[in-house]
Amino acid sequence: ITRDKIRNFCIIAHIDHGKSTLADRFIQKAKIVADRDFKDQMLDSMDIERERGITIKSQAVTLPFESEDGSMYELNLVDTPGHVDFTYEVSRAISSCEGALLLVDATQGVEAQTLSNLYLAFDHGLEIIPVINKIDLPGADIPGTLKQIEKDLGLDPEDAVQVSAKMGIGIEDLLEAIVQKIPAPQGDSGQPLKALVFDSHYDPFRGVIVHIRVFEGQLKEGQTVSFYFSDAEYDVEEAGRFRVGFERTGVLEAGEVGYFLAGIKNISDIRVGDTVTGSKHRCDAPLPGFREVKPVVYSSIYPVDSNDYEELTKSLEKLKLNDASLIYEKDASVALGFGFKCGFLGMLHLEVVQERLEREFGLSIVLTAPSVRYRVITKNDETLFVESPQEMPEPGTIETSYEPYIKAVIITPTDYLGNLMNLCVEKRGIQTELVYLTEVRVEITYEMPLAEVMFDFYDRLKSLSRGYASFDYEMLDYRATELVKLDILLNGKIVDALSQLVFRHSAAPRARAICKKLRDEIPKHQFKIPIQGAIGSTIIARETITALRKDVTAKCYGGDISRKRKLLEKQKEGKKRMKMVGNVELPQSAFLSVLKTS
Ligand code: GDP
Ligand code: MG
Known about the structure:
Blueprint: E1 6-13, H1 19-30, H2 47-52, E2 59-66, E3 72-79, H3 87-94, E4 99-105, H4 112-123, E5 127-133, H5 142-151, E6 161-162, H6 171-181, E7 194-203, E8 207-216, E9 218-220, E10 224-227, E11 233-235, E12 238-243, E13 245-248, E14 251-253, E15 257-261, E16 275-278, E17 297-303, H7 309-322, E18 327-333, E19 337-344, H8 347-361, E20 365-367, E21 374-378, E22 383-386, E23 398-413, H9 417-426, E24 430-436, E25 441-449, H10 450-454, H11 457-464, E26 470-481, E27 483-490, E28 493-494, E29 500-503, H12 507-521, E30 529-535, E31 538-545, H13 561-576, E32 578-581, E33 584-587, H14 588-596
Parallel strand pairs: 1-3, 1-4, 4-5, 5-6
Antiparallel strand pairs: 2-3, 7-8, 7-16, 8-15, 9-14, 10-11, 10-16, 12-13, 12-15, 17-19, 17-20, 18-19, 21-22, 21-23, 23-25, 23-26, 24-25, 27-28, 27-29, 27-30, 30-31, 32-33
Helix pairs in contact: 7-8, 12-14
The structure holds guanosine-5'-diphosphate and magnesium ion.
InterPro entries: EF-4, EFG_II, EFG_III/V, EFG_V-like, EFTu-like_2, G_TR_CS, LepA_C_sf, LepA_CTD
GO molecular function: GTP binding; GTPase activity; ribosome binding; translation elongation factor activity
Subcellular location: Cell membrane
């Protein structure tokens, strides 16, 4: 196939507007998967994605397509996530494409991430095709959506393609629009190799697999390539395209998207955003790459069993290959031993990393309470950045503390406006704008501390608006705040891993909620365990776990031996996921519940 028959495009949209479903229809149309192997949300290959019904990773796939005039095309499609936490994934997908399908759900209209994704695509100069999805639904408002496409998005409604991804309506038309409107990639296969690493992953059987978009030149099996950033050189062992799975082609030409293997041993040689070039014929300059990711939430990860530290180190390295937005460094805690302080793009990102470490790498881990990045000015006029309670200087030495603020934009049907305004006020939000988009939809803008939206804000926004409100945010600035370190004491001893940084006025309620949760999560011991919340030496909350009275097996009345054994085994199983802190056994769930207490 020649380059003028290649189209590289991504599907972008607000969450749930149907991106993954549309990708499914494309895959079926292209018949690259046998019907019996087809599953819904085909590209959401991770377990967590399938269970939660959301896309976390961008996924690429190459589809053959024969247009009306009988020409064969090669379509490289990238499905992208829609949740706020994963915008980084979207921007990477966008850098490897010439065009984007911007999906709008005809029953929901334009939402917060429809706009932010559109801006990303604009910034990269992509050709954008507006697509109205879910036209099969009775609630579909096609004229209204067309108007929004014109007014809110500034796109030509004439270009909009109407589809139902679920029912497979309008898919042919959309494919035709793609080959006609999206430009073929530029680039010359005769030039020295210049390719962008837009993703990578670790395969337990095949090792490191690098995902690239070739801009100039060719990448061939047997060729020696060099990575700009790490300056590492490798011989390409295998190269090919993404089908559902991998299709070895031996070569990737300018304009193509695909993968290669090169027996890469040192994982840190690979950096998403880096440029690959030939080691003999180097390209003149590297590609622009991606902007540095800025984590917004920090938390430390420790293995439940300290012997798993090495395993955790290796797993994080491999996970980082596939999740370039994950940032980590060594950390240590008195209670938990050695671990890693990690930076995340949001709470959902944190949960995903935790789940992937447990599922894909079989680790048992605990996480400390998440924190944002505070700025502290000391009395000696020093500026410190504080991302965990351990880094917090003594209260007496602090002149002023500052916390990061965000600009939060919420779009909601007017019915839920009251609910959402209350929520924002509770989260210390300051309203700066209120704009009626239509008679029934309103956009409100708040300035809010990031720490307040970190925990349950997104979930509560969704439940208070029955799923109809959407939310997007960007970082604003740092503002003065009153910050305290809240300690949790078990049996009179501070457990450093449970400490957290909080806004002074939230400290007491937070402390009470945590003590209660811990009381419910920590099993009874042979002795009484007081749980206390404290700021410095002042106790602000208290609960007690009473001592264990009877042997658990006593319940079995001695008779049934096998039942007794089962019960003991079950206890042992439970212990595996316990962490000894002093003489108290802390289950993994205790850390999780503290993590989620807001
Ligand atoms: P994504 O978050 O944008 O990837 O959205 P999904 O593809 O996961 O779809 C979200 C939900 O909308 C799923 O329950 C789909 O079955 C549903 N959906 C997607 N497209 C259509 C459509 O054209 N019609 C209807 N009725 N439902 C759809
Ligand atoms: Mg999806």
